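Hey team,

Filing this mostly as a record. A colleague (T.K.) asked me to run one chain through the structure pipeline before their review meeting, and I want the input and output archived in the tracker in case anyone asks later how it was produced. No errors, nothing strange. Just documentation.

Input sequence:
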Amino acid sequence: MKVYLVGGAVRDALLNYPVVEHDYVVVGSTPKEMQSLGYKQVGKEFPVFLHPQSKDEYALARKERKNGQGYTGFICDFDPSVTLEEDLYRRDLTINAIAQDENGQLIDPYQGQADIKSRLLKHIGPAFSEDPLRILRVARFAARYHHLGFTIAPETLLLMKDMVASGELKTLTKERIWLEIEKCLKTNTLHLFLEVINDINALADVLPILPSWSNLETQKITRANQFVATREILIDSDTLQICHFCLCLETCSSADLKHIEQTLKIPSNFANSLRDFKLLKNSLNKADISPENILEFFNLIDLWRRPERFDLLLEILKYTQCQQSITQTLQNCAMASKAVTAQQVIALGYQGAAIKLGLQTARIAAIEKTLS
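Output structure:
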């Protein structure tokens, strides 16, 4: 039984990039032996085990054979005779097929180190085309390491285009697509991911509500990222992901956003924020922003019971470099209208169903005063 560190941990260490997690491959062992050593099995299709202390993942060396469509259509062979080189060969890119033994020696049968030096994302062999998920993974790696100068090898890019044309990408579930998008959001690189997806004609399969993508869109979002960084604008990580998502999908039509949670499996906090942002952008495009329009917007986003939605929208406006005066005006109008209470309206003589009308009237007056 031999254990090797593999994949991302080796790759990122060679790039002097932060190593997030450690994955290991075990050669010459069996599920029974792993369990006898205290490892807990977590994989059913192929044996993956958690280390009893570190909880790092240890997978038995395996080979794969395609027996169906999609990224789950594989039969795995994890016989103890499977070699390290055979296990590495089934991986997607050469830079992900480097192993390190317990003495720190690197095993690199497919020249991954050379491709790291050349800043090249290159597939290992023809088996790459058997798994459509690899299209999204390569696009994500291209986005993640863009600042280091990485590009996709021409032969790999051509293969990705052929896979998209064959319809393989349509076998991916919407949940699985969102997981890859979410990983891009965590590194603030969704715009670069979408540029690759557009180049290989996969936009309709990945984000069908996005009508198109261009280099101009990428440049716009790059400027937004630089603006936030240079001005030292403090936006927490979770909020920044939502801001980045909204700016990337700014060109979607409002009609397409109605049920995106169900159709694209997007979490509700992302979906609601995008809808609120689009709704506001449509309002700001009007020639005259009246107190009535502003109050209607506040009602639609339920400012009264869900003030956190408005607070998040202000962060999005800050990230997207909306005019500071507009952002401040909205904030002032929100404060003024929230200061109007039902008790104040009742004191004016409104009763029963008329209280709602009184609230509307008083809030419009408060917004009008703020705008004057």
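Quick notes for T.K.: The chain has 18 helices and eleven strands. Residues 253-372 form one domain.
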